[in-house]
Design a protein that fits this description.
signal; Maltoporin, Chain A; 747 residues; ion transport; 5 helices; 22-stranded antiparallel β-barrel; 4% helix; mainly beta; transport; 5-stranded mixed beta sheet
């Protein structure tokens, strides 16, 4: 018999592939949920925090391509493409997030892939293929995960090699020239080891399209490759993963939302006229189409990125009670992303985000069982280097005209080096069979060195409109942080099916340097910022009935957000100049609300999952921006008051050979604002996205149909306010209706 943990891998042997849809549990019972929220496998009711889990099969069935779509299935989680696919996504959990496209910044929501911190927000755009499960931990994770997890953490776990030799291949096609190919091959090399090779290919056009003649069709081609090895011996286990990704394409074009009825007199439209698309920008442009998904923009904006790295996890069972784990990982991202920010055929705002980011992780963790108690102790070290090569060409078409005084081409070359070191410990103490106390503490030391160099091209000689390149600024500096974070939690088991918990925790997000697109040396001198802190109180419960057909998880939370880092997009004091974009510690905030998650199996055929996120209060306290505008009681950006989603699943089995399952899902977001100014123009009205998928399984074959945004609902990922600069809002449109059909063959 194979020594490759047969009890661990038997379900996979029975399922044979990641495309299998049915559970090993009795059909009328809810599947037992196991999570890694505390860096070890546990039942979710043993963990005194809110954990939302999504299995890889569910991601596959709904056609979710990458990490930005996880919010469709999890309440109080919103992930936006931000400034188009290929830029750092904006991740928001319970109102805590960072909305900034700067490639040097770090999100307050940590993301871990197979135990490794991805580092800066650049690396939070993850394609989801051959995934075991995703867990979303809500609230500060300042003890075990620590670094920059004030809002929470997202844990993505790939499928690992296992016993047995098998594989699958999937081919698919869909609307908007979408083509997909994916596959995996698992080989049991010996009784002790196995390897798994996985590939993933996506090619598609965007659902928004360009009506400007001779503009290239915008779309992306993505290729991912993963090779992993697992060896298990009597007291040792080694997991090694090598990954490579290559993306290439044309960036999704942006829309132009004009605000003027008459640009000469600068007479503004009403809100309803603006939203109807009946207005023009400061230069009189309107795309002239009544189709929401149509744009007209000189969008020859290429995207190219290469991502490669490794993950190594070495586990030593010192004895039956003690385990030592060493995690080591490296990742390098090279990315070039061109953009057009005026959303028109003119050359008024164009540029490029260029970045090379290298992240090295090391973690040594001791896990020791003391009878019913459990101790975790570890050290963590991260080194990250970010090299930015950005540029922004402003008002190019106005050069040589009376209106061209603010025309300039900015070039930015920044180098940032971050060193992070932490010591952490957590102790789970079973006071008796009903009471569990958890104590956690983490000390972290962070050091960031930055070197920011900028040059500017401006017209000096009116006869030479190509301009001259001049030094603009050169700023060097250092940001140091050290902080102490921790957690105290009490878990009371009423019985085996019902428990209540209370958790008090805090988390820190480190300071840094916002060297993105700065329009003056004074901004560059003031672009560093300090750490922020979040103190969280959470009271919740987890319940499952005796028949194991109903599961209810709920939580009430209250956050005290101190020295909050906020990306501010505000008008320049110079008329016609680009806006001032700052990331500063600006204010304190209060956030409170609730989470509810329900899973109910009505019978062997019908199951419902339903989640509600409710945040009635998420406001800045007393605060005025640098221009003197009061933002007191303004609502935090990207924070809906109400968010609920659900999935209704129906399954039919015939003659034990044919298995059909259909899922209908929805995600509803109430209205929210895109920035701190609480402008009605830069806001998203409430919307609901519906999806459906159906899988037909027969012997070695699966046919899968899926459709996302089936009613083609119009919504935006972001509306970036450039009204005082170009008389418009830059509209990053969401994804329209997309339908796909896939065939999987298992062997």
């Amino acid at each position: 018999m194979s020594k490759l943990s047969i009890k661990k891998f038997l379900p996979a042997l029975l399922a044979l592939s990641s495309s299998q849809i049915w559970s090993n549990a009795t059909a009328s019972e809810i599947e037992v949920i196991e999570v890694y929220a505390q860096k070890r496998k546990q039942l979710d009711n043993e963990v005194s925090i809110t954990v939302n889990q999504v299995k890889g099969d569910k991601l596959l069935n709904f056609g979710l391509k990458d990490s930005t779509e996880l919010g469709l299935l999890i309440p109080n989680l919103k992930i936006s493409q931000n400034a188009a696919e290929g830029t750092p996504p904006a991740v928001n959990i319970r109102g805590v997030g960072l909305i900034d496209y700067n490639t040097a910044n770090t999100s307050p929501v940590a993301m871990y892939v197979d135990g490794m911190s991805v580092g800066s927000a650049n690396n939070q755009l993850i394609n989801l293929f051959d995934i075991e499960q995703v867990e979303v931990l809500k609230g500060p994770q300042g003890t075990l995960f620590g670094r920059n997890s004030t809002g929470g953490a997202i844990l993505i776990r790939s499928k690992r090699p296992e016993a047995g030799t098998y594989g699958f291949i999937t081919l698919g096609a869909g609307t908007d020239n979408m083509y997909k190919a994916a596959g995996a091959y698992n080989v049991e090399m010996s009784d002790n080891s196995a390897i798994r090779l996985v590939f993933n290919h996506n090619k598609y056009d965007y659902t928004s399209y360009n009506i400007l003649a001779d503009s290239p069709e915008a779309g992306m081609e993505q290729n991912d490759l993963r090779l992993s090895y697992l060896g298990q011996w009597e007291h040792l286990e080694w997991y090694l993963k090598l990954n490579y990704s290559h993306w290439n394409g044309i960036v999704q074009p942006v829309g132009n939302i004009g605000i003027y009825s008459d640009p000469i007199s600068q007479r503004r439209c009403s809100i309803s006229q603006v939203n109807a698309g009946n207005c023009v920008d400061a230069f009189g442009f309107n795309d002239g189409s009544n189709d929401y998904w149509a744009v007209s923009v000189n969008n020859d904006s290429p995207h190219h990125s290469i991502n490669k790295g490794w993950t190594s996890e070495f586990t030593w069972d010192v004895n039956q009670d003690t385990q030592l784990v060493w995690l080591n990982g490296f990742n390098r991202l090279d990315r070039e992303h061109a953009f057009n920010c005026d959303g028109s055929p003119a050359q008024l705002c164009e540029g490029q985000l260029g970045v090379k980011a290298e992240v090295l992780n090391n973690e040594l963790r001791l896990q020791h069982s003391l009878g019913a108690h459990f101790l975790t102790f570890g050290v963590f070290a991260l080194q990250e280097r970010i090299f930015q090569k950005n540029d922004n060409d402003i008002l190019r078409d106005l050069r040589g005209t009376p209106f061209g005084d603010n025309s300039a081409h900015f070039f930015y070359d920044n180098e940032l080096k971050n060193n992070s070191f932490a010591v952490f410990s957590q102790f789970d103490w079973h006071l008796n069979k009903n009471w569990l106390a958890t104590f956690g503490l983490r000390y972290a030391d962070e050091n960031l060195d930055y070197d920011s160099l900028s040059n500017i091209n401006v017209v000096i000689d009116p006869t030479n409109l190509s301009g001259a390149l001049l030094p603009f600024y050169h700023v060097k500096g250092e940001v140091k942080d050290n902080d102490l974070s921790g957690r105290l939690a009490i878990n009371y088991s009423i019985n085996q099916q019902h428990n209540l918990y209370y958790s008090l925790s805090n988390g820190y997000k480190s300071g840094g340097y916002n060297g993105g697109y700065l329009s003056s040396p004074e901004q560059a001198m003031l672009a560093d910022y300090g750490p922020e802190e979040l103190i969280a109180n959470e009271f919740g419960g987890k319940f499952i009935n005796d028949q194991k057909s109903l599961k209810v998880n709920w939580a009430l939370f209250h956050y005290n957000y101190k020295n909050q880092q906020v990306f501010m997009n505000q008008p320049s004091l110079v008329e016609g100049a680009p806006p001032i974009q700052l990331l500063e510690n600006v204010a304190n905030s209060k956030i409170y609300g609730a989470d509810l998650e329900i899973l109910h199996s009505f019978n062997e055929a019908l199951e419902l999952s339903f989640g509600i996120g409710y945040i009635p209060h998420a406001q800045f306290e007393a605060f005025s921006d640098p221009l003197g505008n009061s933002l007191t009681n303004n609502r935090l950006p990207f924070t809906s008051e109400v968010n609920f989603n659900g999935v209704l699943s129906y399954r039919v089995v015939w003659d034990s050979k044919i298995d059909i399952q259909t899922n209908i899902g929805f995600d509803h977001q109430s209205d929210y604002y895109f920035d701190q100014n609480q402008s009605e123009l830069a806001s998203q009205p409430s919307y609901t996205l519906w999806s459906i998928n159906s899988q037909f399984n027969f012997e070695k074959y699966t046919v899968r149909f899926w459709a996302k945004n089936i009613f083609d609902k119009e919504y935006s990922h972001l509306k970036f306010d450039l009204t005082n600069f170009l008389g418009m809002l830059e509209d990053f449109k969401g994804e329209g209706r997309r339908v796909g059909l896939e065939l999987t063959y298992r062997f």
